[in-house]
Amino acid sequence: MTSKSEDKIRKSGQSIETLVKLKDEDWSTTPEFIYGGPFITKGTTSPFMNTATPINLQLQGTFKKSFAYYSLKDRLPVIITKIIDSLSRGGAKGKGSDEDVRNYIQYLTELKSDLITNKQYKLLTVDTPEAKRWNQWIEDSPNQYYFTNTWVFTECYVYRRIREGCELNKGLINFDPFEEQKAKSFSNSLEPMCVVAEKVITMLDPSEKDKRKADFIMLLKICLWSNKCDLSLSMGEEVTLKNEGVPKSPSKDLVDPIQMIIDLKDKILVDDSSKIVDQVVSRSEAILKIMDEPAAPTENPEDNPTPEGEEPPKPKSCPAKVTKPLNLMFDIVCDNAGYELFSDLCLAHFLISQKIANKIRFHVKSIPWFVSDVTPKDFDFVINSCVNGCFEKVVKVEPKPAASEGQPPEEEAPRVINADALKLLGQTWANFVADGTFVVLCDDFWTSPHTFKDMKKIQPYLYRDLQFAVAVLFKGDLNYRKLLGERNCNPSLGFEPALQGFLPAPVIALRTVKADLICGLPKGKWEQLNKIDPKWMEKGDYGVIQFCGKCEPLKVFDRPCALYGDTCRGIKCF
Ligand SMILES: O=P(O)(O)OC[C@@]1(O)O[C@H](CO)[C@@H](O)[C@@H]1O
């Protein structure tokens, strides 16, 4: 494609399909595509272009120099192949019958073939309301081919299909093809978990302002770097902080996430952590004040006279009319299980113990997703495994430099790392789950192909739920892509405009960079990093901590009764 036509696309801001028409519907099944990768063929207008994603367009597999193209062509097929291999080696033993497993293997083989030959999506065949919604989204989608739709749509579609293969085979209905990898990744991360747990224990007593701020910032950074532990980027290969290397650690034998914060200081490209702490704390205090105000009665007693001798009913508001939070809630839209979820739980615990929140809502995925994303089962698994954690390591500590010249360096006693603190935290988290301080939610929107600017339209109830939060923390790269509408915006565009109107509550993003889109960089930084390493956006070596404090005020909801039938009787709210 010429730079002139790139310019045209850039300026028009239109989708590529409106400009480059696929003339031949069957182009994707030509030998040129199947046997040599999607090359541009003579005489056919190909949608593939030898460019990176042009600015302001959405990421999609047609841009051959983009991570989307590489991911659809290589990474995702490998992930499917690995499931097939594991099933062939008995990976679903005891879960489904031999026939179930055979069917699933066949289903996955077809799915992989459809993906690599850029076929048109097939509709889901399971008969559930959620699958029907998915089919509607597919049918409404202007482009229904794997490489020519947006990358996020296709990826989500593939994971939804991986799930459908289980739903279609009775014995595999509860089967998670990634469970084993997630469990392994947890046990391989016990060391950094024990190190962090020991530190977190020192952050839980009520503390003065400066210490509280420093601890909050440290936890944000621990949570940021925990996003390196993502099994989809590694295509299922083991990832722990261990293989990330901790260059200058004083005790080299230890995987120490606290030291990592210092070592990776320069890899945080945008750091709003101080602003996050200040604004979250003051919003939490402001909400607390509103919560303490007496509730205005919402009913007219004359309409419902209390029978003589009975206590008048306590005024209850229709949730649709509630415009002030009833709890100090902090929401975490989770990403990966294992060490990453552990770090999120540490932050959540800190927020509760410092009374910045009194309830944490964890939003997780209802189905296995992007290999290592948290499901409700993983959530329980991580907490239970912390409760039962077993680990001990004696680490040699580097001697301190000599106090004065001529003196030998001061020997340090070895450090013993064990799971005592981890168990204690795990037990408290189990109690928090039991008493409702920690709530696990899994709205289907999180496993839909939609980006967040459309949440209000597609899933208005979820949007409104988020509006009650002190802040909403979005973890990881996929959530980041969805926050930015999967759009390759100008890298120096501010975070707020990049969100394109998605402002339910203050938004925090903690993301290690694993896809080629970003916002909020100082001018010139993106170009400078590209010169050092053209692939810097695909490796998770850099991170951003971004914040948008602007949010939509909570108003009376325009959909009173559909959802709240139990509490909302007719047009009157009690
Ligand atoms: O959301 P996460 O776990 O941080 O990252 C998910 C991820 O591995 O998957 C996508 C490609 O499949 C990439 O954008 C990203 O690298």
Automatic annotation (TrEMBL):
One of its GO terms (molecular function) is fructose-1-phosphatase activity. It catalyses: beta-D-fructose 6-phosphate = dihydroxyacetone + D-glyceraldehyde 3-phosphate; beta-D-fructose 1-phosphate + H2O = D-fructose + phosphate; L-glutamyl-[protein] + S-adenosyl-L-methionine = [protein]-L-glutamate 5-O-methyl ester + S-adenosyl-L-homocysteine. Its cofactor is Mn(2+); Ni(2+). InterPro entries: ARMT-1-like_metal-bd_sf (IPR036075), ARMT1 (IPR039763), ARMT1-like_metal-bd (IPR002791). Residues 291-318 are annotated as: Disordered. Transmembrane segments: none annotated. One of its GO terms (cellular component) is nucleus. Residues 72-291, 331-526 form the Damage-control phosphatase ARMT1-like metal-binding domain. It comes from the Eukaryota. Coiled coil: none annotated. Keywords: Hydrolase, Manganese, Metal-binding, Methyltransferase, Nickel, Transferase. Belongs to the damage-control phosphatase family. Sugar phosphate phosphatase III subfamily. Subfamily III proteins have a conserved RTxK motif about 40-50 residues from the C-terminus; the threonine may be replaced by serine or cysteine. Metal-dependent phosphatase that shows phosphatase activity against several substrates, including fructose-1-phosphate and fructose-6-phosphate. Its preference for fructose-1-phosphate, a strong glycating agent that causes DNA damage rather than a canonical yeast metabolite, suggests a damage-control function in hexose phosphate metabolism. Has also been shown to have O-methyltransferase activity that methylates glutamate residues of target proteins to form gamma-glutamyl methyl ester residues. Possibly methylates PCNA, suggesting it is involved in the DNA damage response. This is Sugar phosphate phosphatase.
